[in-house]
Amino acid sequence: MFQSLLLALLLDRLLGEPRRAHPLIGFGRLAHWLEARLYRDSRGRGVLAVLLAVAPPVLLAGLCSRAGWPGWVAGIVILYLSLGLRSLGEHALPVARALEAGDLSAARAAVARMVSRDAALLDETQVAAAATESVLENGNDAVFGALFWFAVAGPAGAVLYRLANTLDAMWGYRNARYEYFGWAAARLDDVLNYVPARLTALSYALAGRCRLALDCWRRQAPAWDSPNAGPVMAAGAGALGVRLGGAAPYEGQWHERPPLGAGEVPGPLQIRQALRLVQRAVLLWLAAVLLLQWSLTHA
What we know:
By secondary structure, this protein is mainly α. It has one domain (2-297). It is built from eleven helices and four strands, in the order H-H-H-H-H-H-H-H-H-H-E-E-E-E-H. It has helices at residues 2-15, 23-38, 43-64, 68-82, 85-100, 104-112, 124-171, 183-207, 210-220, 229-240, 268-297, and strands at residues 243-245, 248-250, 253-255, 259-261. The longest helix has 48 residues, at 124-171. The radius of gyration is 19 Å and the shape is globular. Pfam families: CobD_Cbib. The chain crosses the membrane at residues 46-64, 142-164, 277-296.
């Protein structure tokens, strides 16, 4: 297990996400195709769409994992394709560099590729906050969630998690179109993220300012609208000693969000620190898996 995780992370470090023909691009097209043919304003149609989208790739990944050493290699490749650790830096560092250069327009353009809020309305502090929040939240979505489900259920688990996360990003909106059709995608993502999100929050605490992170997690996470993003972002902000949350613009309107963390006002330094926090947490996970594997083999 440790070897598989390490090799997949090394592939991500060396290669990053495929520039062309990423499987998730093809999956996104499949999801659009299914939506065009199955959409009704009903939960039942949403459940059917999720099953048709997710079940075949998950079953195929499960079969691959049973094919001896080729299956082991395929499992490493599947986990690599499910990860986005290097991608976090490729998206966040341009924001930090633009802010350091005093180029707010470039920073806004870069952060718009990371978040769904109206970047053109953000000032320097809000741009830095948006990028930092995205790094912390996607540390769970693009790294730790996939690692957790690979460890629990092998390649099939990693595929299930990543596809559910993708469908949630496409269909899991609380609006008129997706309130019912997107219900299944949103709930599946919530269920699959429940344990990884809390392990991610704990990892951030252990890799940063532990006491402050745990205190922010306890006090601030319940007020956040997402049951899983709340612990991750509150603990991450506390671990960094930075103030996040607060008002953010979406579709031309400012929405007030609960505060996250405590301490400094966010800037480009905090974006870089958030990336380093995720990287330290990855090392903690590898150490924990290695220790667990060693203890099981020597029991």
